[in-house]
Specification:
Blueprint lengths: L6 E6 L5 H13 L3 E6 L1 H6 L2 H8 L3 E2 L4 E2 L5 E2 L5 H8 L2 E7 L1 H9 L5 H8 L4 E5 L3 H4 L2 H12 L3 E2 L3 E4 L5 E5 L3 H13 L8 E6 L4 E2 L5 E2 L6 H12 L3 E6 L11 E4 L3 H12 L4 E4 L6 E3 L18 E3 L3 H6 L6 E8 L3 H11 L4 E6 L11 E2 L1 E5 L4 E3 L3 E2 H16 L7
Parallel strand pairs: 1-2, 1-6, 2-3, 6-7, 7-8, 11-14, 11-16, 14-15, 16-19, 19-20
Antiparallel strand pairs: 4-5, 9-10, 12-13, 17-18, 20-22, 21-24, 22-23
Helix pairs in contact: 1-3, 4-6, 5-8, 10-14
């Protein structure tokens, strides 16, 4: 009952994906949430309001005004959109059509759901679901970006089989992802308000010729999870990202880099303006001494490549950190704790997170990690297998404990 006591307005719009909202509502109730449903007129053409009333245990709201027996009109005896906004902890619109998203972005309030969205002062989560043509429409994308930039929480649609029979983007995201987003919004502490956090993510690439490069298997998932978690907890976040296949997190300033030297340049440039640096990127230790100007072919025969070390970014910032908090990661295949402790000492870190990539479902490319925390006092804390989102918040909890005295405010 993780969401016990939480009150959620579930907005339901006229998308074929509406049938998934029934299962979503059931899951929210299983988590302990109290849910009241607002349906648009088009939504009611897909599924009867009675279905949502039965699943929620509450009346379903359809219109601002209801006809009486004498054909006059009333407003549910009170302004229902105001009453609902005063009751709820958050609003979740799932599915959210292009219509409701675009109306919200423009401040249009011409039915009960759009009026309630305009009136509500709490967190709003939007879950787009539509055909790919609508989802990729440039005006719709602009509206979605506009809402994201103003603090709305957007759960991106996924790629898959659509109602049209095509494979494409616009599919209703997994219900588990929506539930996790609701948890993140409603249960996250805003204990990083006023704190500036700089996160690095992804794996750097060092080119050998115009086509080929050496790199590593980092997916960037850990760094992105840290950036998103820090933002949810109130931090002002910058994310320096090496190449990944991940969508950029909403509402976070992104600085894209490719090479280790570019990563170093951006970290040094932004370090003086930050309170916390979390180096989650897998920065390449080496680069080619010589960059071939043309593509190397088999006809050239054997290719002997001489590698030279890249700059050690953490070592460099560790010498000038003063009262800033620096966190590093250690990925080893043997003697993890011994090597992590040495790295922590040498680079003047406040915390190091050691990952064992030899374990199943841990480290590169996985959605989970089995990590070890080591602090400046050499205290070792071994964690169980956690999702990277869960681990991100564990790391932020550690940072919060380290910075508690440094961040005392009036």
């Amino acid at each position: 009952m993780i969401l016990k006591g939480k009150k959620i307005i579930l907005g339901v719009t006229g998308s074929i994906a509406i049938y998934k909202s029934c299962e979503l509502l059931r899951k929210l109730r299983e988590e302990g949430a109290e849910v009241k449903v607002i349906m648009t007129k088009n939504a009611a053409k897909f599924i009867s309001p009675l279905t949502f009333q039965t699943l929620s245990g509450n009346p379903v709201y359809l219109e601002m005004f209801c006809p009486l027996e004498d054909n006059t009109w009333t407003n549910h005896s009170e302004l229902v959109h105001i009453k609902l906004t005063q009751w709820a902890d958050c609003m979740l619109v799932a599915p959210a059509t292009a219509n409701i998203i675009s109306k919200t972005a423009c401040g249009i309030s011409d039915d009960l759901l759009s009026t309630t969205l305009t009136s509500f002062q709490g967190p709003i989560i939007l879950t787009p679901a539509m055909d790919e043509g609508m989802y990729k429409n440039v005006i719709f994308k602009d509206n979605l970006s506009k809402l994201s930039g103003r603090g709305y929480h957007i759960i991106p649609a996924t790629k898959g089989l659509l109602a049209s029979g095509k494979i494409g983007e616009g599919r209703f995201p997994p219900i588990e992802d929506i539930i996790q987003s609701v948890r993140d919004v409603l249960l996250t502490k805003e204990d990083f308000q006023g704190i500036k956090v700089l996160v690095t993510a992804g794996g750097t690439q060092e080119f050998l010729d115009p086509v080929r490069f050496i790199g590593n298997a980092s997916s960037g998932k850990m760094g992105y999870a840290l950036a998103e978690a820090a933002k949810l907890r109130g931090a002002e976040v910058k994310l320096i990202s090496a190449p990944t296949l991940l969508p950029f997190p909403n509402g976070i300033k992104i600085i894209s880099v490719v090479t280790a030297s570019q990563m170093r340049e951006e970290v040094i440039k932004n370090f003086s303006l930050t309170d916390v640096l979390i180096m989650a990127a897998a920065v390449g230790d080496f680069r080619s001494k010589k960059l071939e100007k043309q593509k190397r072919t088999r006809a050239n025969g054997q290719w002997d490549i001489q590698l030279v070390p890249n700059a050690d970014i953490l070592l460099e910032v560790g010498k000038q950190k003063k009262n800033k908090i620096t966190v590093g990661f250690s990925i080893e295949t043997e003697n993890q704790i011994i090597k992590a402790k040495e790295k922590l000492r040498k680079k003047n870190l406040d915390l190091i997170v050691a990952n064992d990539i030899t374990l199943k479902n841990s480290g590169f490319c996985s959605d989970t990690n089995k990590a070890i925390f080591i602090d400046k006092n050499s205290k070792v804390e071994k964690l169980s297998l956690l999702s990277k989102k869960e681990l991100a918040n564990k790391i932020l909890d550690k940072i919060q404990n380290i910075g508690r005295n440094r961040w005392k405010r009036e």
